[in-house]
From TrEMBL:
UniProt-recorded name of the protein: 2,4-diaminopentanoate dehydrogenase C-terminal domain-containing protein
Native source species: Williamsia serinedens
Domain 2,4-diaminopentanoate dehydrogenase C-terminal residue range list: 145-351
InterPro entries tied to this protein: DAP_DH_C, NAD(P)-bd_dom_sf
Pfam families, alphabetized: DAP_DH_C
Gene3D superfamilies, A to Z: NAD(P)-binding Rossmann-like Domain (3.40.50.720)
Length: 359
């Protein structure tokens, strides 16, 4: 059965989602939403740089897209700076009977214990009312720190700790708002950007820690522990998103840890650099400019590095592709899922079925 899909936004993730929807044999792209008036009327294939038209023109008319009655929306709009407005959008889609896979807000990846119960219930109730499902995921938070680590724990005889890393050079990551305003790159070290306000990390990545804990049947101590270590640039640095002056923040390592009886059992560990030479004492990729790493201590001791890069060699571009495709490839499973909010723990095995290149 062909599923009719609307792509919601055409930014750094959305344009890759359009290409993915076009590639999947069971999906048909029927609409595209854009926030930029300059993109209205442009063909989806043009917006996705496919080199060909898809016969679907972008619009900023929300009601016109809802009137198409799509089976699903692939929602990749920026949510980091408009969390509650984005939740309102998702609730609206669900109430209108449209299934949704979304890259954010990431706190809905596994919201139990992360956001108030009444907010979770509001989202879930909207899905039940509209007989539609919502799945929020991607690569991080997402596959690299939910399905991947939980799959590896199936090889364990004893688990002492699960630690999930993102180790990355963000110098080619184009998200100016995220880089400067949310992370604080290029700002004084004594300034506290949004992400490092106490409690925010536990919302943004606490869902990772709590979902792994749920998968392992752990009851965590409250609250989660947060730790942030910043590094100042030794010289001026230019990135695609922000210029970083010497003495301002150029790298950061942050951790969100879940403990049981005071012992760290599940840890999310992010090391973000803007130059590969920064802080060599912090964990570094085995190869390339970045990786996701899972370390499981116990019996046996296991480490896996998940390294990705685009055809042009850039791991930030491939990071956008993997984020998009985790959603696109999940559409069929989410449409078939029970109504309401569904997490990675609720879905079956998702694969790239139908995407093997033709000779």
């Amino acid at each position: 059965m062909t599923l009719r899909v609307v792509e919601w936004s055409t930014g750094t993730v959305g344009r890759h989602a359009i290409a993915g929807i076009d590639a999947r044999p069971e999906l048909e792209l029927v609409g595209v939403w854009v926030s930029d008036p300059a993109k209205v009327g442009r063909d989806a294939g043009d917006l996705a740089d496919l080199g060909r038209d898809l016969g679907v023109q972008a619009t900023n008319d929300r009601d016109a897209l809802i009137a198409l009655k799509p089976d699903a929306i692939v929602h990749t709009a920026m949510t980091d700076d408009r969390i509650f407005e984005a939740i309102d959008d998702l609730v609206f889609f669900l109430e209108n009977g449209i299934n949704v896979v979304s890259s954010g807000p990431v706190l809905l990846q596994f919201p139990t214990g992360v956001v108030p119960d009444d907010l979770v219930q509001r989202v879930h109730a909207a899905g039940v009312q509209g007989n539609a499902s919502l799945h929020v995921n991607g690569i991080d938070p997402g596959f690299a720190n939910d399905i991947l680590p939980l799959s590896f724990t199936s090889l364990s005889q004893r688990i002492d700790q699960v630690r999930c890393y993102e180790i990355a050079d963000y110098s080619t990551y184009y998200q100016p708002v995220v880089m400067r305003e949310i992370f604080g790159f290029g700002k004084p070290l004594d300034e506290t950007p949004m992400l490092f306000t106490p409690g925010v990390l536990s919302m943004a990545w606490g869902s990772v820690v709590r979902q792994i804990a749920a998968g392992l049947d752990l009851v965590l101590d409250e609250p989660l522990n947060e730790h942030v270590e910043k590094y100042a640039a030794e010289e001026d640095i230019s990135t695609v998103s922000v210029d970083i002056a010497a003495g301002t923040m150029a790298a950061v390592r942050f951790q969100v840890a879940g403990t049981v009886d005071g012992v760290e059992r599940v840890v999310l560990d992010h090391i973000t650099r803007t130059h590969p030479a920064q802080r060599p004492d912090w964990p570094t990729p085995t190869t390339g400019d970045g990786c996701y790493r899972v370390e499981i201590t116990g019996e046996p001791m296991m480490t896996v590095d998940f390294v990705h890069k685009g055809e042009n060699g850039d791991h930030n571009i491939s990071g956008m592709i993997t984020t998009a495709m985790r959603l696109v490839n999940a559409v069929e499973a989410v449409v078939a899922a029970r109504p309401g909010l569904v997490t990675a723990l609720d879905l079956p095995l998702i694969t790239g079925r139908g995407l093997v290149a033709k000779a």
